[in-house]
Amino acid sequence: SDGSIRLHQMTSEHPLMQWNNSTNGQPVIAVQWALTRPAVFFVLDASSNIYIWDLLENDLLPVAKQTIPSENILTMALLGEPEKANGMLGIALAKESGQIDIEYVKKKWALP
Q1: pLDDT tens digit sequence for 62-77
Q2: Helix or strand or coil: residue 108?
Q3: Which of 1, 42, 82, 85 has the most beta carbons within 10 angstroms of its beta carbon?
């Protein structure tokens, strides 16, 4: 609820990494690992901002942020085929109106 994100290993109760205030204090709505690139994950906050984290590029801050200004995004789900090396990765965004938008991610964050 405070925008903190923690990365845990299943064998320990203590986080490997913790990012405090990673969303400028906005509650985190969803966190999803990229299906095609293991070091990349996406965070959706309550203000409809999507943060892209690439731990191989920067493990302190997100590498990109995209705001969806039109209306509130309630949740997101990632789409892709990890067994294919084409690097196609999409994000399905569920809007408050009931609409679903699908956005495609740049290849640099999607390629295995």
Answers
A1: 999 999 887 789 999 9
A2: helix
A3: 42
